[in-house]
Design brief:
- By secondary structure, the protein is of the alpha+beta class.
- 27% of the residues lie in helices and 30% in strands.
- The strands form two sheets. It has a five-stranded antiparallel sheet with strand order 1-2-8-6-7. A three-stranded antiparallel sheet has the order 3-4-5, with no helix packed on it.
- The longest helix is centred in the N-terminal third of the chain and has 28 residues.
- About 6% of the residues have low confidence.
Length: 132
């Protein structure tokens, strides 16, 4: 019985070390600018960009007809009226939402807090939403 208890304890310790190593590898690769207005992280193959962002940061979203819209990352608001969080894949603005974009090997995700142009600017219509 004593040997079994030792094996179980060792298994638990090794599992904890393995899980910590995996989590810290992902966390270590997370980059956040000093002002918090840019977030960069490597993709986890097969996982949506939004799921990975949720795992690495504290986010707030709201549901729109076209999917989840990120309104805040780590407490920094992208209200939609003056600023918004834009999603990029491999340095290019994504034409697909972060909730539906499934990571491919080597993808690098980035979020930038972008200021809306308000003077004489037409209203922003999200990609994929019907125009009225």
């Amino acid at each position: 019985m004593m040997a079994l208890e030792i094996v179980i304890k060792i298994s638990i310790i090794l599992s904890a070390i393995f899980i910590s190593a995996c989590v810290s590898q992902v966390d270590r690769d997370l980059q956040i600018s000093a002002d918090g207005e840019q977030v960069i992280y490597p993709a986890i193959e097969g996982e949506s960009a939004l799921s990975t962002l949720e795992r690495l940061t504290n986010i707030r979203t709201k549901t729109e007809e076209f999917g989840q819209f990120v309104t805040a990352i780590n407490g920094i608001e992208g209200s939609g009226e003056t600023h918004f969080w834009a999603f990029f894949v491999n340095g290019k603005k994504s034409r697909e939402g972060a909730g539906s974009y499934i990571a491919k090997p080597g993808d690098l995700f980035e979020w930038r807090l972008i200021q809306r142009k308000t003077e004489n600017a037409p209203p922003i219509i999200p990609y994929g939403s019907p125009r009225e």
